[in-house]
Every structure is written in structure tokens, then in C-alpha cells.
Write the C-alpha cells for this entry.
Amino acid sequence: DTGVSQDPRHKITKRGQNVTFRCDPISEHNRLYWYRQTLGQGPEFLTYFQNEAQLEKSRLLSDRFSAERPKGSFSTLEIQRTEQGDSAMYLCASSHDGLNTEAFFGQGTRLTVV
Amino acid sequence: GQQVMQIPQYQHVQEGEDFTTYCNSSTTLSNIQWYKQRPGGHPVFLIQLVKSGEVKKQKRLTFQFGEAKKNSSLHITATQTTDVGTYFCAGDGGATNKLIFGTGTLLAVQP
């Protein structure tokens, strides 16, 4: 296991379509995060899993966004009825729980909604 | 909700000058982490501070965690062109200990 992997790396979709992204965390990590980042901004927290439990979802997040981590391993992030404002880099990160919570990031999925 | 702010947003220095970025959280943090993101890359972990008043050094980088565990700073001595990038602090706190990133400071170093 060499790190966090995300798929796809790039996605172009038409407005109104649904998209799904996948994240495979480092295998022994029980925390998994989804962030969204736009140019010149910091990673914006979207949601967070501890094993298979979704502990928190950003209040800023529309109901069009949903995430799962069914077996506590990989996770998916789905965006329904995409809008142009959803265009961003979607980053996944994983970490241990406990004292050392260093987050390891994937390369991200760049979404462009046209 | 919890917010983590950084100043300045942008700093341009001549190579060899020092650089400092400051991080402030609206809530007390259980720990503070620092990350560096190169242009076109993803955030990469630099360090974690846990104790109140803690100071850690990594070569030319010095990290501090405030006494109240609500603020932190990163100081780079004698910047080099390889230091270019955006530096983010990230706080681990709140009811679920989620990791919240600061707004970032973009460092540009002129040779």
C-alpha cells in the first residue's frame, strides 16, 4: 500500500449529471476525510468517517452531496444534479485515530462542471 | 462553527529573508498540524504539536503552539526557493475531533 489513491483524477461533466468519486485510504487508517479545494483556498471540510461511521458532515454541504464508507475501507462521494459551482478539486485524506492524526492526502479528483 | 484563520494570505520575500505565518483558531484545539502544498500538488504533512506552549524545530523551520492551544506559528529562517508553496495549519478539535484547515499562507521566494 503506497498511499491514498483517488479515482478518477479528472472528471468533466455536464450540469445536472450525477458524479461519483472513489477514495482508497491507507489500509490501516480508520479515519477518512473528504475535502473540497478551489484555487487559492484551503481544503474545505466536507465529511469525515471513523471506520464505517460518518461522524460529521459539513452544515454548508448541500443535500446533493452524499458519502459512504460501507465496510470501513474505501469511500465514495456522490454529487447529484451537479452545478457549475461544484467545480473544484475533491481531496480525500486518511489518518490513524489517537495521538498521531497526521493526514495523508490523495492526489485528488478535479471536477469540472460545464 | 469552528474556524481557523491564517495571516498573512500572501508573502513575497527575497531568498535568504525570514518568513512567519500565524494561525488562529476560534476554539481550543487538541493538537495543531502544519502542511505544505506545492503548486499543483496536494497538502503534505510537516509536523504535529500537541502540548500547550510546545516548540518544535525542523532544520530552518520552527513551529510553536500557543499556551491556550488556540494559536500557532511557523517561522522559516533564511528562506530558499524550495520553500515556495502554501502553508496550512490544521486543527484537530471539536466534538468529533475532525481536522479543519486554515486559510493558508502562500509564500513566494524571489532568487
User: Anything to note?
Assistant: Chain A touches chain B through 26 residues (CB under 8 Å).
